[in-house]
Amino acid sequence: MARELGLPLMPWQAYVVDVAHEVDPVTGWWAYDEVVVTVPRQAGKTTLLVPVYVQRLSSIELASLWMTAQSGGKALARWNAARKILERSVAAPQLRAFVSIGHERIEWLSTGSTLVPFTPNEEAMHGESPDAVFVDEWWAFKAVEASKLIGSYSPGFLTKNAQAWKTSTAGTKDSAGLNASVTDGRAAVELGRRSGTAYFEWSLPDMVDGIPYEELPDEQLIVECIKIHPAIGFHPRTPAEKMRHHIRTELQPGVKLDRQEFIRAYGNRASNVGSGWQVISEPAWVATMASKAIPPGVPVGLGFDVDPDGRDAAVAVAWRDGSGRATVEIVKTAEGSRWIADAVPALEQRWKVTQVAVNNAGPAREAADVVEQRGVELLRLTQMDYGAACARFVTEVTMPGRPLLQHIGQPSLNAAVEHAGKRKVGADGAWGWRRDAEVSVSPLVAVTAAVWAVDHPRETEPDIGPFWIR
Prior knowledge:
This protein folds into two domains: 197 residues, P-loop containing nucleotide triphosphate hydrolases (Rossmann fold, 3-Layer(aba) Sandwich); 174 residues, Nucleotidyltransferase, domain 5. Helix 10 packs across helix 11. It has an eight-stranded mixed β-sheet, with helices on both faces. Strands 15-14-11-12-13-16 form a six-stranded mixed β-sheet. The chain contains 14 helices and 18 strands. Strand 14, helix 11 and strand 15 form a beta-alpha-beta unit. The protein is of the alpha/beta class. The longest helix has 16 residues.
């Protein structure tokens, strides 16, 4: 099926599906009711699962397949990715996709089976009896969230020959769901169990040549991560050398990942750092929530940013009141970045904008070029300016007594603040927001630029009126 879909399985993927589809010879049901797969980033989790979806949809009458990720939005994105692959494959005549908001599903015409995305909570699957549940990015679920998710689908497994598939890269110390799966899965493998949980892991060993993996020099760490990556040399479209080069460049200073995140992403070992609130604590952020949005007609600074991987972009505004307190607000965040070129000039007309700022680096710099072509004057932040803007943002949020910065509790900004970290941006000790591999921090970068913009308005000459030259 994978070959027919144009997704030939790599050896590691073939091994997983071979074992996961073992059948108990006595009952005729799946030998494993849970399949846990943890692999480094870019190993091919999506192309592993799409053929599995098709196998279940096409072979089981009226099967009910459900898929999710760390949020409803991420679940929908995963579902859309699978839908686009299937609609461009030989399977297209066999299926029908429904994309209405809140009612998305893929239906296999001959069997009536469906694949539905869902938000990972205890209500989403209440009363359902799924034939399969697929959970991507299992690392993102903390203890309570993991328990609620399992509780939402496990009752339906009592009377069904069903399986739960959980796929993920390593998480953090807060990744309760995945960490429990790793502990239980390793124990099951050591004991040679052939039922219950099928557990698969590709990761750095605890020790390399007698040295703990955490203490390996950067160069050796890169080499060992390349060794254990199961897609290198087997990926059907990407040459091995290109993958090796990509992994190597990920650890270069000031690029994308710090050392701990690199080990998590490509060594597939859990980070000791918590999964969120590393720079601004959750209590501090909650304490600065404002009850009112920015009032109309006041002078604001506008900032925008584009995610380094092009996942999304964000536009924000900031206003300082007479007491010096700033209020920040996300105006828009959306997938891609092409919309920025139209949005920024339009927002300049809607708001009383005194300055438009952008961090002059990465894809945001290219977007800035297009915005300037539309006639918008920009303040492009240098590395030093950007570092100062980030430091000021944190100082004003965490200031004891009466913080000088507040927000209106928008989910996209809340998530960005939770998942952002620090990274060095220059040689003078300055730092900027570190991007998260799973959650975009573009909204946070945008509001940071907006605050800098409102504090650095454009220089304008006063209108002195008509005059005579004698």
